[in-house]
Amino acid sequence: MNIVCLDLEGVLVPEIWIAFSKASGIPELKRTTRDEPDYNKLMNWRLGILKDHGLGLKEIQQTIATIDPMPGAREFLDELRAITQVIIVSDTFTQFATPLMKKLGWPTIFCNTLQVAEDGTVTGFQMRAEKSKLVTVKALQSIGFDTIAAGDSFNDLGMIEASKAGFLFRSTEQIKRDYPQYPAFEEYSDLLAAIKAAL
How is domain 2-13+70-118+127-198 classified at the architecture level of CATH? Predict the structure, then answer.
């Protein structure tokens, strides 16, 4: 039995923090998991910037409301879900993901949770598990699934490596150079064909 595990940001939707960086005029927030392999370090750094600028969940959610899936993402996901089980495995947060899941037709997503004070200040974050993407595919494998994974960033490499087939999608030139063993695609049609061949 197969199950496909897809990253969210950079694969199906634009990077939320890059969009918020543009909306807020804070260029430092453009830094993502494509640039920083240590997710806890990245998130704590982001929370410090939000605090310094007096920004909270409401401002980020206002930006997210303006984000649409990448062109072709919904159609790709619909076609993929018609032939196999799909889970989006993301390091984003439920407070960010819900409006995007609506636009993608409510696929299943495993993600994390922000800790938010009553005034909307983001005070922290709770990860589902250490190395949550790798842990997720290992857990799925432990209950009888063969996993196929695709992502674009450093934090996707664990689940890609652990899966029976793994692909890079719209990744950085650096990651593609450093991990040439993983086929890299730029178009949904090519990724879909590769996944179908691996099923």
Answer: 3-Layer(aba) Sandwich (3.40)
Task: Select from 3.90.1150.10, 3.90.1470.10, 3.40.50.970, 3.40.640.10 the CATH code of 17-64.
Answer: 3.90.1470.10
Active site residue 7: yes
Residue 9 annotated to the active site: yes
Domain residue spans of the chain = 2-13+70-118+127-198, 17-64
The Cα–Cα gap between 75 and 86 comes to 14
Active-site choice (9, 15, 152, 156): 9
3-state secondary structure string, the chain?
CEEEEECCECCCECCHHHHHHHHHCCHHHHCCCCCCCCHHHHHHHHHHHHHHHCCCHHHHHHHHCCCCCCCCHHHHHHHHHHHCEEEEEEEEEHHHHHHHHHHCCCCCEEEEEEEECCCCCEEEEECCCCCHHHHHHHHHHHCCCEEEEEECCHHHHHHHHHCCEEEEECCCHHHHHHCCCCCEECCHHHHHHHHHHHC
Q: Mean pLDDT for each consecutive 10-residue tract of the chain (199 residues)? A: 97 95 94 86 93 94 96 98 98 94 97 95 93 96 98 96 98 96 98 97
